[in-house]
Amino acid sequence: MIATAHIVDNSADTLIARFHSRRQYSLALAEPLTSEDMQLQSMPDASPTKWHLAHTTWFFEQFILLPFVEDYQSPQPQFNYLFNSYYEQKGERYPRAQRGMISRPGIEDVYAYRQQIDSAIEQLLTTNTSDELVSLIELGINHEMQHQELLLTDILHAFSLNPLYPAAFNTKSGITELSADHQSASEQFIRFDAGLHQFGVAPQTDFYFDCEGPKHKAYVSQFALAKGLVTNADWLLFIEAGGYQNPVLWLADGWAVAQQEGWQCPLYWRKQGDAWYQFTLNGLVPLALNAPVSHISYYEADAYAQWKGCRLPTEYEWELAAREQAISGNFSEKQIFSPMPCAEQGVMQLYGDVWEWTRSPYTPYPGYKAPEGAVGEYNGKFMSGQYVLRGGSCVTPIEQMRSTYRTFFYPHQRWQFMGLRLAKDC
Amino acid sequence: MIATAHIVDNSADTLIARFHSRRQYSLALAEPLTSEDMQLQSMPDASPTKWHLAHTTWFFEQFILLPFVEDYQSPQPQFNYLFNSYYEQKGERYPRAQRGMISRPGIEDVYAYRQQIDSAIEQLLTTNTSDELVSLIELGINHEMQHQELLLTDILHAFSLNPLYPAAFNTKSGITELSADHQSASEQFIRFDAGLHQFGVAPQTDFYFDCEGPKHKAYVSQFALAKGLVTNADWLLFIEAGGYQNPVLWLADGWAVAQQEGWQCPLYWRKQGDAWYQFTLNGLVPLALNAPVSHISYYEADAYAQWKGCRLPTEYEWELAAREQAISGNFSEKQIFSPMPCAEQGVMQLYGDVWEWTRSPYTPYPGYKAPEGAVGEYNGKFMSGQYVLRGGSCVTPIEQMRSTYRTFFYPHQRWQFMGLRLAKDC
Amino acid sequence: MIATAHIVDNSADTLIARFHSRRQYSLALAEPLTSEDMQLQSMPDASPTKWHLAHTTWFFEQFILLPFVEDYQSPQPQFNYLFNSYYEQKGERYPRAQRGMISRPGIEDVYAYRQQIDSAIEQLLTTNTSDELVSLIELGINHEMQHQELLLTDILHAFSLNPLYPAAFNTKSGITELSADHQSASEQFIRFDAGLHQFGVAPQTDFYFDCEGPKHKAYVSQFALAKGLVTNADWLLFIEAGGYQNPVLWLADGWAVAQQEGWQCPLYWRKQGDAWYQFTLNGLVPLALNAPVSHISYYEADAYAQWKGCRLPTEYEWELAAREQAISGNFSEKQIFSPMPCAEQGVMQLYGDVWEWTRSPYTPYPGYKAPEGAVGEYNGKFMSGQYVLRGGSCVTPIEQMRSTYRTFFYPHQRWQFMGLRLAKDC
Amino acid sequence: MIATAHIVDNSADTLIARFHSRRQYSLALAEPLTSEDMQLQSMPDASPTKWHLAHTTWFFEQFILLPFVEDYQSPQPQFNYLFNSYYEQKGERYPRAQRGMISRPGIEDVYAYRQQIDSAIEQLLTTNTSDELVSLIELGINHEMQHQELLLTDILHAFSLNPLYPAAFNTKSGITELSADHQSASEQFIRFDAGLHQFGVAPQTDFYFDCEGPKHKAYVSQFALAKGLVTNADWLLFIEAGGYQNPVLWLADGWAVAQQEGWQCPLYWRKQGDAWYQFTLNGLVPLALNAPVSHISYYEADAYAQWKGCRLPTEYEWELAAREQAISGNFSEKQIFSPMPCAEQGVMQLYGDVWEWTRSPYTPYPGYKAPEGAVGEYNGKFMSGQYVLRGGSCVTPIEQMRSTYRTFFYPHQRWQFMGLRLAKDC
Ligand SMILES: [Fe+3]
Ligand SMILES: [Fe+3]
Ligand SMILES: [Fe+3]
Ligand SMILES: [Fe+3]
């Protein structure tokens, strides 16, 4: 099994309620979008809203209804080809880069498909709450949460190509200008001792993804971690210091990409005259100087750290700092959908606001084995060329977050809410 | 002026009626499409339906309202950036390849824009029917017709990428199987004498595009032209004879493209088991053997002609044959939207069904000068690298057709309704 | 037959002498080059010197020895794969873009191969001077001349990538600075009457390539042709007038290429401080202001003509002006290898100095049929997408030149010695 | 300092002798090559032999003569531009992908340059043997060794594109066919206990590269390592089992590359009829079944391990096994230049034959800081996207090898002598 759920109350009713609530949240996020918005695919990395809504449904159908319902007949057999993302063991797939070409089924057809599958799942759960089934429901719910985040980052990217700067949402903005006595906490360091620690979650705990385990030991040298995230104001100083023009600060691969793509600032920054703006899910807004910088690549994060004579933390370092803290912060449910400033004691904003790039490549933990079957393709086959990010962002559902959660992206990617925190040896 | 209109009845009422009728036809063609369909851009050469509907409106606004209405204020000033196609003299443009990314304005906004502009045009025409204005209205109407054709060829291309084979229309199919005693007329030749002829239209005639003139003399050697178009049945023989595997038949550039793209048949043919089908605006249908072959590149047409020991006609040869004939045939108004078989006396199907590739590169006629101003960018700047096609197709409005009409495409392009007729020296 | 030779004195001795002399000239051109120079292939369009020397030899072997010598055994059977350029009917070929990867055979092996084949040809000619054989020898000699030109243009391109600016030759430079009272003749026009003319050479004349015939009639409208070629001084004015920044002057395809490639001046111009230099086969030299501009694309030539309110001549117009003139000028044998200024009566420099872009796409003349067999691939299969240039250049052997000679290149290509002459309607 | 040398005998004479001997070895490796061979650059990753000979010389000039010789005047100032590889702090560089375009300086000029610099180094060493200088000489010697390896792998790649299969060397082949009772040792595992170990070398040891340090602790779980390398015979079974056709075995990135590149076997395997051959520095030879497989990517190595239910070792695991062993094996000095079979006690062939892919991304060790100055660009800026390989190969100088040596390549690269050893958890 890819995941094991240790759910305190796994009565059918509770599970069905959680299932419907989580499924409903996807629809809520899509609610302000038009059918034309939901059709957009702005790059191969991103997918249309409509596709997300259909694919998460397909996931429940393929991984639960198909194996658990006897003689299961799909209401939409053709959808297996259209909405399989990357599971080789589930058969041929529609080319990823063309997902934006599927105008039919229309969004109404996809809503109907969701209802059909949701009803079937509910019916199944009234008769079967085996551990295996509950675990897979849990997996489907976590999968749905991941796509709820992608739905938002993907529509942000699509809208960013529209010169009319459409706003997907119109929620509280809450972002303030930089006060005169402002001091960034991004260079206030907190020290941690060296030690041999245990990492990776145990089988008896709550739900986790296979890549978060198994439990294993690792030695971590003494290090220091910054109290605060690097902010937009910090980043402006990097720009003004010529950070984007100085190859000596950059990894060789990063410099090559930066030159080829013409990077001069984070992905959604826009300069109009002398003023900086940022494109957000609330449209184009003045750059919030004291908010964490976001939408930067690993390469940019690493160059910034070089410039500061620091480095990025490893994922173990991050986890050591995070695992004692309560999980709260600026997550999706706050409906701000932009990183926000913060002022607290201790290491701040480990959770929420922005995913934090670590310097740890996404590799298997000692003893890791991908599960058997198609579900084994969920994580294992992506363990090359990517880096781990930790902590979740302002568009991540809070329920999904835990100190062991590893997300992963390529070092050139910028369309997620990605930021950084400095670390250093000491 | 790009064009001169010699309109018998250019009373305001008549012109307004023609204008509205032509504008209405664009909406009628889009009627069976959903807002998601109208969002699709399946390749840089093609445009979304919504874009066509907005761009043709922009054309009237920019080339007529802006110069003729005093202190003209656009209801949508941002649309100039979004819906300018390629007129450098009209300012910066949104990148062509990203037209499918514009979900907002939505289709309802575009419909509203059309109404606003149409009302303004109607109002203008009630007070001004100067020759210059009438000529520009005429140009706008002809421009609208060109995009009515593109709207259909572009949605056909987009739908062809959908494995569910959606049908845009459900009109009469009318296409029959090949009868046992069938004889293709594609190798029955009709001879024409050599002679010095006049080509190009005169300033005092009806509307024409600048590239159709000026009137000039050209000498045409003796030649023969096939009675019939090459049919799907003919093309099957080419495939079976290994035409797509034999480089000796092909132009060097054509062979290179064919290998790179993996061409093995016309663009929309699909083989299922042993049977050939064709994807059409009515969905996937069995291949109509006696219908003209369509959706082939210049390179394929040339290779076919080589295989037959023939050649493609020049545009002058085609025009000599066509200019004595009445203009009728399978055009857009028949609402078949697929090439059809035909049986007649003389050279058949010169008009309608499929555009016919000629071996004439699209070059300026002797004495040609592009008009002054942005309107001069309509045709002249495209006079390199393309070939002339003649006669119109099953998705061309018949009003647009005349014996001097030159359309032009790159030799590798296949998404228009393009076919061929053989010619030879004699 | 691709070509027919009407040679006055085709005695074996004379033919052998001509053959050896022409073959020897290739070696003479390569003489100043090192074995490393001769290895270079700087782009897929160009070939290494060593490859030219081997390929022209292969041509004699394949088209003459193989068919005419009984039981012919090649001394180097593997060379057919390596040195076939593009003849599909001669079998598989080594990939064109990798010609620079063939370090073995070394240049000494290629010299030995040349000697082997030359001896065999000489021996064959002592026993056989049939018309067919003589025609093919003539074809081989003309083929050798074409590659003598390419050998020079290709090494110039390769050397242009070397920041040390190597000089292949050290011959007289002869190029003067622009005098104070200088007047370009590029806008002095000479008028020609309209008329129906005969073009294309007859079968009973001297050697010609198949694409120069057959003889046919064409009507040419009244036109005017400039006395002089456009000079470097003229071109500087185009640059200073913002010619490279103004899309309105350019063909749409040309503007796209110019932006993508970042064109700001002719291919081999280099600016150092405020001064312009040109890289030549004699190294980097100050720009010769009164010499004809060279190494410009069709797109640039067309934009220049647009800027001047003129156009490029058609190939018929050029031929009408040229066919009364004696063939002399700055050709390869002068060993200057750079375009030179000129002052004469009448239309000047029609021959030599630079190939002149015409506005005529390279298409078959009426009645053209490619010859049977591999020799038919010499010209016919390239008749799409290219433009005709006329008149030869400073690296063309003069023997090759005639008023009907058509060379052809793609409109974006610049590495040949390509210039322009203005024309206009009148 | 990038490296520290603890050289027992660093008398001037001994150091000069070592210097000359190492420099001479480069010339010896190039000796069988022609000047044309030495010009070849077959892909951007590879460089011409001539470039390697010049660049290693440039390294001594820039990192030693320039800082240590007062008022140093380069005999070839232009070579800094031509032969700088990637040191941003040394100024602009000639584009890497065009190194094969530099025919001048010729090879004789490069030989002369080597002599000039070598004499200057010798002269400098007679007057200065400061620790800093000796360390840099040591660095230069190690750099020379790295390029001695690249010189061989790069010419092998270049020759592999020549259909005549040239042999660079003609040394003993020594490779036998697979005997009937053969048993591969690639699945005989030896177990290692878990433990907290120290890795990374200390400042007081012999020469090492910066990336090999600093000394640090890491915990290694219990594991097992295969006694033998995976052999060609083993790999044939992988091919026959459909390993190249089964996406389930592959990393997602690996499968994408394999499909795009059409991988069906290791880089230099060639099938002729039913028999497998391998292209080597001795030309095309029958595949040696009991020799280690070579020229496979990380992706292929990982897929093979998946197929076997195993995994690749980490670099720590490899190092634990290797650091107790004496350093001997099939290295460059044996002049075999191909991987060979082996039969020994214990874990075999940890050193020599083929570099062994580890599953460890090339990342900085805890506490790593790149040195100041241009020398700091040697390793640190490449620490993203690459994997560590360990142990050296049949073209690595033995002097270079040590248990802590980390080389690194991208997971898609195959042109080095790269093989694999299985590992597993236990
Ligand atoms: Fe998914
Ligand atoms: Fe238009
Ligand atoms: Fe040739
Ligand atoms: Fe180096």
UniProtKB/TrEMBL annotation, chains A, B, C, D:
It comes from Paraglaciecola agarilytica NO2. It comes from the Bacteria. Keywords: Iron, Oxidoreductase. Pathway: Amino-acid biosynthesis; ergothioneine biosynthesis. Coiled coil: none annotated. The keyword Glycosyltransferase does not apply. Residues 188-324, 343-424 form the Sulfatase-modifying factor enzyme-like domain. Residues 19-133 form the DinB-like domain. The lineage of its organism: Bacteria, Pseudomonadati, Pseudomonadota, Gammaproteobacteria, Alteromonadales. Transmembrane segments: none annotated. This is Ergothioneine biosynthesis protein EgtB. Pfam families: DinB_2, FGE-sulfatase.
